Amino acid sequence: MFDTSMQPGTFLFEAWQARWSLMSGLGVTMSSSVLTIIIATIIGTIFGVALSYGWWWLRALIRLYVDLLRGIPVLVLILFTYYGLALFGINVPAFWAGVIALSAFATAHVAENLRGAVQSVPAGQMEAAKAIGLRFGQRLRYVIVPQAFRRMLPPWVNTGLEVVKGTTLLSVIGVVELLLSTQQVVARNYLIIDFYLLATVMYLVINLIIAQLGALLERRFSYLRY
Amino acid sequence: MSDQPLLQARGVRKSFGKTEVLKGIDLEVRQGQVVSLIGASGSGKTTFLRCVNLLEEHDGGEILLDGDPVGYRMEGGRRRRLSEARVSAQRARIGMVFQQFNLFPHLTAEENVMLGLTKVLGKGRAEAREIASGWLARVGLAERRAHYPYQLSGGQQQRVAMARAVAMEPRLLLFDEVTSALDPELVAEVLGVMQDLAASGQTMLVVSHEMLFVREVSHHVVFMDQGRVAQEGTPAEVFENPASERLRSFLGRFHGLLGGRAE
Amino acid sequence: MIDYHFDWGVISRNADNLVNALLLGLGLAVVSLAIGCVIGLVTAYARVSGRIWLSAPMRAYVEFIRCTPLLLLIFFVYFGLPEFDITFLDKTESFILTLSLYAGAYMSEVFRAGLASIPKQYVEAAKAIGLRPWQRQRYVVLPVMFRITLPSVSNNLISLFKDTSLAAAIAIPELTFTARQINANTFRVMEVWLTASAMYLVTCYTIATLLRLIERRYASIR
């Protein structure tokens, strides 16, 4: 099966033939992942802070959003967004419908994780920050966030992994990311095992890099103990 | 108005839900004085201290710092809460040292002291660093400047916390049972720093169970009982002539510590 | 803004279909969790065994699954096994196999953490009253571990239930697949997806509530 000669029908030959489709699929996977992680991190952070310190009605609203989004499968979110946006005459490409749905999902997770991290900072920290006269924004920026960030990291890295894996679901609405481009290649050459293995390895590499970066960052903050 | 007390509390009340913790506290602290609050746990000492620094809002009465009401301003005979920025500015004039130290774990000893200097008082980093290392040297931690809190003992952490509070040059310094969380052998080093500060003329309001220290260092002692001031006076008056049975039995617990003079 | 007229008749006409589809997804999740628990328990013991030739491959399995997209695994097993002349699995069995392997990796992580968190004194006390090694596991370690890990197990059940939506990709008629079919036939987009979302939500929170009740029954043991 793993014939290494460069003949048509062998893995290496077919992989060379398919290199551009696979690269472009990989590019779509990466760009949708990165976009989603950026959007979810920004909005999720705002939501998380609001969930921790907001007025009661704002907290209730965001709590509702977070709990709703965590109870619905990502695939359903993607399909709903894709068909729903079209219905309201909003013509966005499938790629963006997918990124919006994935971001909505990841935002909920980031917000919830941030709230947990903020809550885990001992109350005395806020009081000590008040006692030296720091204002609310300063207390968050110099005292709470740096400490919460450390506890945010592991779940945040996990959300990143979930997002990368979640981009495969965009294939269902026709976004030619790595999985769908692999399927298209397989449909031409029938080298099912070889090319699925190749895709698996690519996902493994991306995710191991993310996990490794996370571990590196964590070590950077190892002085944070109680 | 040189005769005006630095801190003046009049009829301060505070309830948590249905429990009234402070039932009208009157108290004065004058410039350069060390005033100690003593009393059983639950008597309201810590709550009063937290009201002074606006960590709790008092429900009634008033607390004046240099004649200005703390946390509120009067407008047409009604109390209006001060803005966040004004409250923070008031807090900056009052320092506080906590039972649990509450050092910022992500900052070194020096950075802990510098944070308020740079962000609240707006000093440059070089100047703040100089002030910080000066105070750390004063509390005997010159060579621990670059250590993180987890690398310091409890007593050392508490001394850093004192440097952090006093470096802000507060008008008034509050101490909330600062030795209660320490191992017995570390208490002395912390009390030593407090004694040094008192001798330098720092105005201090101290909640403490260290009766020997209270007796030696305070100018004025206030015994609180069930949310009220039950007796106050010079250490000699309070310790030698306890007026009430409750103060007598409270002090009785510390007889051994007071040098067995009670017999 | 276009105006959209809701017509919930679509839903009531397909109510049977939708409920059956939901139950199918629930069944897939429960079966996969059960198999996954067995895999997870065995691999967790392998990982705490202290023998590197046992623990290393199991760790690799867990990391591999954690870093690979579920949809890719589903396709890999579904299309790949026949390449090895394994053709006796239908698509549902193939999906259960995939989801079980997937669940197994996550349960392995849960059980490993659970085993690690059991206080040593329990095992020492069990030794002291003369229990043999397997008896210590059977009567002391496992019961304590299951109580400690129960919340994580319930979270995993909910995740797995949501993951059964991916079975739609190989045309297993669970809720997402059914909803998509009704959507394609009637184009009542809002009704269909609102209903499907609501059904997932209600089921997830019902599972969560029920399992929390069970957890509370055992809460006395820490």
UniProtKB/TrEMBL annotation, chain A:
One of its GO terms (biological process) is amino acid transport. InterPro entries: AA_ABC_transptr_permease_3TM (IPR010065), ArtM/GltK/GlnP/TcyL/YhdX-like (IPR043429), MetI-like (IPR000515), MetI-like_sf (IPR035906). The keyword Hydrolase does not apply. It is found in: Cell inner membrane; Cell membrane. It comes from the Bacteria. The chain crosses the membrane at residues 33-56, 68-88, 94-111, 195-217. Its main location: membrane. Residues 26-214 form the ABC transmembrane type-1 domain. NCBIfam families: HEQRo_perm_3TM. Part of the binding-protein-dependent transport system for glutamine; probably responsible for the translocation of the substrate across the membrane. Belongs to the binding-protein-dependent transport system permease family. HisMQ subfamily. This is Amino acid ABC transporter permease.
UniProtKB/TrEMBL annotation, chain B:
Belongs to the ABC transporter superfamily. GO terms for cellular component: plasma membrane. Transmembrane segments: none annotated. One of its GO terms (molecular function) is ATP hydrolysis activity. Signal peptide: none annotated. It is a peripheral membrane protein. Coiled coil: none annotated. PROSITE patterns: ABC_TRANSPORTER_1 (PS00211), ABC_TRANSPORTER_2 (PS50893). Keywords: Amino-acid transport, ATP-binding, Cell membrane, Membrane, Nucleotide-binding, Transport. Its main location: membrane. It comes from Teichococcus coralli. This is Amino acid ABC transporter ATP-binding protein. Residues 7-251 form the ABC transporter domain. It is found in: Cell membrane. It holds the Pfam family ABC_tran. It comes from the Bacteria. InterPro entries: AAA+_ATPase, ABC_ATPase_HisP-typ, ABC_transporter-like_ATP-bd, ABC_transporter-like_CS, MetN_ABC_transporter-like, P-loop_NTPase.
